[in-house]
Amino acid sequence: MFEVLPESTDRCIGFKISGKVTADDYNIVLPRLDAAIAAHGKANLVVVLSGFDGYDDLDAAKADWHFGRDQYRQVEKAAFVGDSKWVARMVRIMDPFTRNTEERAFTPDQIDDAWAWAKAVA
After folding, report:
1. Does 93 or 36 have the greater pLDDT score?
2. Which end of the chain has fewer CB atoms surrounding its CB within 10 Å, N or C?
3. Number of folded domains in the chain?
């Protein structure tokens, strides 16, 4: 499930991912992300992973792939916040495939730092 976070701005979209993700969940985040990209040319993300339990079905995985192929290329910074070591590993693994995006991993107690970093525009 995706939930847009109240700290979001028109250029920096934050959302929490928990439980199983469905294809419909992308309809919550993508319109805001598309609007940020249209207004600013790029967008920044704060992604809080809390109890993420994978994809509900193949349609959800395909929606994620389309997001990565289409919108994620226009993301300048992405802060991933999570309490397990796999979040930091995921960021390192993604790096060669996401050269246009600067990514950093943060722990839950660093959430304010994640927002400050993601909201800072170069």
Report:
1. 36
2. C
3. 1
